[in-house]
Amino acid sequence: MSGSDIIDVTGVIERQRRNRLVLTVITLSTLMMFLDGYDLQAMAFAAPSIVRSWGIDKAALGIVFSAGLFGILVGGLVFGYLGDRIGRRLAILASALVFGGFTLAAAWAETTTHLIVLRFLAGLGIGGLSPLCYSLNLEYAPNRFRGTVVAIIMVGYVAGASVGGFIAAGLVPIFGWPIVFWIGGVLPLAAAVLCFFTLPESVKFLVANDREPQEVARILNLIEPGLAARADSRFVIHEEAQTGGSGLAAKLVALFDGRLAVVTPVLWFAYIASSMTMFFLNSWTPILAEASGHTPAQAALGLTVLSLGGAIGGLTAGRVLDRFGVIAIAILPLVAAPLVASLGFGGLGDSTFFAALLGAGFFVIGGHQGLNSTVGLFYPSANRATAVGWALSVAKIGSISGPLIGGFLLAGHTPLGTLFLLAAMPPVVVACCVLVLGMSQRRQAAGPEKLDQAAVA
Asked: Would 114 be classed as within a structural domain?
C-alpha cells in the first residue's frame, strides 16, 4: 500500500468483525463504569455507620450528598470538554485518578466538612467518566451495535451501584465505615494503571485532530487484520464537520448549530424529565412501599427489583435502538407512564407490587438508558464528549428536583395515588421528545442538512 492511498476510518469501523481491541475497549469501559457506579453510592453505603460512629444526626449528611451531586454535575461539563481537547483516553485516566484518589482520602475524614470537600472533588471524576466512556465506545462500535454497546457498559454502572450494599453489609461491621472508601479508592486507581497500558485512544479522535498517524495505523490494523495501514497513509472520517473553534465557548455554540438547534434542547428536556421520575423512584420507593402496607424487607427488595428491571430494560432498549432507530424507544416511556401510576393504587398484593416495580424499572430506567445510547449519535466526533457531558450534567436538574419535589409533596400529605400519578407525567414528556429526536434522525439519514465532509489526517 502506498502512502497516497486513502483509508476510510469510518468504513473500517462499520465493517469490522469481532476483534480483540474493541472487545478490550468495551470490557475496560464496563469495568470503569462499575467502579464509577460503586463510588457514586459509596457515601450512601457508609452513611449509617458514620452516623453511629460520629454520633451525628442523619440530616447533617444531607449537604454531603448534595456536594457529591454538585461535583458530578460540574465534572460532566469539565471532563466532557477535556475529552474533546486532550483525548478520551487521557481524560478517562484523569477522571479515574480524581474520583479514586479523593474517595480513598475520605477514609481518613474526621468531620462532615472533610466529607463535603472530598465528596465534591470525588464527584468531579465520577461525573466525568460516563460521557468519556460513552464517547470512546460510540467511536469504536459500528452503527448496528452502538446502542447495545452503551447498554452493556451501563450494566456495569448499575451493578457497581448495587454491589456496594453487599460489601457494606459484610465488611463494615468488621472493618468499620472506612472500608467502603478504601475499596472505592484503591480499585479505581489500580484500574487507571491497567487502562494506561491497555486502553487505546479513540481512533476517530486521533484522525479528526490530526494526531499520531502511527497509532492510527496500528489500531486500524488490529480492527481489520490485512488492511496494511501505514503511518503515511491518508486517513479520513466521514461525519458532519464541526463548526467554529476548539475553545469551550465554540464547542458550546456548536451544540446548537444547524439541526442541533432543535436536537440539543429536546434531548436535554428528555433527560431532565426522565431523571425526575427515575430518581424519584430510586429515592422514595422503600418509604412509599412501607406506606402502602408492605414490610420493610419487602420495601428494600422492591428497590432491587426496580434496578433489575432497569438493567434488563437498558439492554433491550439498546437492541431496539440498533435495529429500529431512536424513534422506536419512545414506546418505553409511553408504557412507563401507566405502570408508574399503578404503583399508587392501594391494596396491591406482594406479587402484583413486585411485578409492577419490575415493569416500572424496565420501562422507566430502561428508557433512560435508551437516552444514554442515543445522546452520542447526533454529534460529530470532534464535539461528542462535550455534548454527552453537558447532556448528562443537565440531567442532574431532574435527578435533584425529582426526589426534592417528592419530598415536598409528601410533607404536604399528598395521597399516594396522586403522588404516583404526578410521577407518571414526565415519561409522557420523554416519549414526545424521543419522537422528535427519532424524526430528526430519519431526516438526517434521508438527507442531512449539511453535506458530509471528510476530516483528513
From this structure: yes
